[in-house]
Amino acid sequence: MPEWFDGVAQEWSLIGAAPISFAITPVVVIVVVWAILHCFYHRMLLSKDSQIEVLQSRLADYRNVLEGASPREAAYKIAQLKGKLEAIKGVPRDENTIFQNGKRIGKVVGVRIDPPNNSVVFDRMTIAGHLDQASPVEFKDLVLAFVGLDGFSQTRHR
Q: What is the pLDDT confidence band of residue 1, given thresholds at 50, 70 and 90?
């Protein structure tokens, strides 16, 4: 016979002498383990409940902001707004380009901006479109009024 079986056979007399104590011991161990696990899982469930509440309130806030729109509808609305924003922004502007009425009309070289005198001087200006001398010209973040062939005058910042 195996050795462990011999050990159990020798201790069987102790088990037979106190069967109630032997039966109570595993029950007590099972109850203690169950109580520990129950407490652990109860805390975990409470934590999950609070996380669910936070996420539900966040979802309700998103629904209020999106006016009940689905994610697909919200993405479509955002794409439309981005398109409108790009249309408002107009043509991208580089350093040496001049605009009139939101359209690129030419390039300049040798720019000197003199804020105290409210003036901007270009060494050379090449017009590729029509220059309306009655309308302001935009350069960088400046809106300029046409003074004459000698130059432009700064009127305001954009």
A: low
Widest distance between CA atoms in the chain: 121
Work out the end-to-end distance of the chain between its first and last CA atoms, rounded to an integer number of angstroms: 99
CA distance 128 to 104: 8
- What are 6's two structure tokens? 């011999």
- Look up tokens 């901007």; give the residue: 120
pLDDT digits (tens, 9 = 90+) for 5-62: 888 888 887 778 888 888 898 999 999 999 999 999 999 999 998 999 999 999 888 8
98 beta partners: 106, 139
pTM beyond 0.70: the answer is: no
Please tell me the chain's helix, strand, coil percentages from 3-state DSSP, rounded to the nearest 5: 55, 25, 20
